[in-house]
Amino acid sequence: MTTSSVMFVNEGVFGVSDDAPAPMETVRWSNGLAAPMAHGAWILTGINTGQVRVSAQRFDVAPPIEATGWEEIVEVSVRSVEGELRINSGYDITPDDLPLLNPQGPGWYRMRVHASGRSINSDGVSDEPVEGYLIAVWPQEPAESVIIRSSKMIDEALLANPAGPGA
Q1: How far is Cα 46 from Cα 11, in angstroms, rounded to an integer?
Q2: FRET pair for 39, CA 20 to 30 Å: which of 26, 65, 112, 113?
Q3: Is 165 within 8 Å of 30 (Cβ atoms)?
């Protein structure tokens, strides 16, 4: 089941995390779309401030890759420390209708992040959502980050971080 909402973002990111404080010193920005941390992750938007469309899915096992309509797709490992992994804006205005992504509780999960529209209003402000994201999560032990579908934005991030997407 897919649940969708429109969400406010600021400073070009939104989170997938528990309520635990974000361990910013552990952020791995390497692939330019999903930046995992010691627990949780940041999703990098194209806009700096405004509204984006976000959809969420949770699975028991890895779903087939559905690339139709998505410009970028990456997979990263994400850890939940409190068992309340949710999509959040980092503000009190996070949509309530997006589901808990890990009903199995604390532990490691795989997160596939799909994005479209990130280059439309790069670093701009958008009152109407021009970007879309699909976040799919399932239980899985940690593994290297993988770029399934790349873009100019991802390619530029990889050039800026020669350690590669798994870094």
Answers
A1: 10
A2: 65
A3: yes
The percentage of residues in the chain with a pLDDT greater than 90, rounded to a whole number, is 68
* Long-range pairs of 101-106 with CB within 8 A, sequence gap ≥ 24: 101/16, 101/56, 101/58, 101/135, 101/137, 102/58, 102/137, 102/139, 103/58, 104/139, 105/80, 106/80, 106/81, 106/82
pLDDT digits (tens, 9 = 90+) for 14-73: 999 988 777 778 888 878 899 999 999 999 999 999 999 999 999 999 999 999 999 999
